[in-house]
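Each lists chain and fold; for instance:
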Amino acid sequence: MNNVLIIGAGPVGLSLALSLARTGVRVTVLEAQEQLSNDARASTIHPPTLEFWRDLGVADQVVAAGIRVDRLQYWERHARELVAEFDYGLIAQDTAYPFRLQCPQATVIPLLAAALKEAGGTLLFGHKLVGLSQDAKGVDATIEGPGGTYEHRSSWVAGCDGASSMVRQALDIPFPGKTYEDRFLLTSTDLDLDTVYPGIGPVAYIFDPKEWVIVMQVPGATRIVFRLNNDEDVEAAQEPAALRVRLDAFIGTPLPYDIQSSRIYRVHQRVADQFRQGRVLLAGDAAHINNPAGGMGMNSGVHDARDLGQAFASMFQTGDETALDEYAANRRSVAAQGVQTHTDKHYDELSSSLEEQRQARNQAYRTAAQDPTIARQWVLERAMLSGRAGGQA
């Protein structure tokens, strides 16, 4: 009975399902919601993710739907000074996709779902996992569906159901880590910031000791992320008038614009104690969550799906479960020691408040940008390619 039940139809669950379906494995994806998520928060796609989706036959569609970012920029907010710029052309020899793509996950997942249907996979909406048990030969999942509660028997289960994963909770796997004190305000506007920051690229990190900012262009919108002060009221911060006061203070000059949407979110760094328990495995936010600065969250989850799909393929071919153990150990190591370390460092650099630290950071960025060898390594790291030989991506 070579079949896999996947809980969660986000980019991780659908990528894993498509990977398995392409190799002939019977796969069923259960999604608790009545439709695919329209959550557009995650929008950054790095080269290794596109390489994986190319292998699955969907990369061209994703690239066509997004905005290519050919350079990363770092600015000082009040001086409106470009501190450093890093060219993705430096990694053209390392990948077929020498750019960062900005494309909201709400655009990506319908493409994955359509490809999964064509590959023969099953996707069921309105089906919620409420219980899980397993024995030596398979897994019994208790599901609440449109027709009532029923049992689903499968040989394996993959939990790709997000940070509040019912799969992880059913297995009673601890999810230790931390929650940042800061809260972030994400606004979508139609602002053209080139008049304020001449030459600004599609993605820019803007340093400020009190309120750093991240700017990201996505199709049809300019996304601006602000760090909220600890004493700010979240509801008041999202009032239209308050949003305009904050945006006006940021751009510093009268400009016409519309606010399309806003949301506030907290940031966590957590890694599950284990990614495998018997015939059940975890991937994506169900297994690890991190600071989104740098856009590594969704990507590292999709890389889990890539590696787990390969591990399943090996196991189904040989009957040896060693590949699944290696997946669990390797991806947990990447999450704990690679992605989280990098995102923590990136966050600390963004939020530096002491003048001496800020000057040292800016000089380090300038020095790196001016040296092609160092700059290439810098871009490789931020493109999640730097540790390819060692399994980092």
Summary: Confidence is low (pLDDT under 50) at residues 388-393. The chain has eleven helices and 20 strands. The first helix runs from residue 11 to 22. The first strand starts at residue 3 and ends at 7.
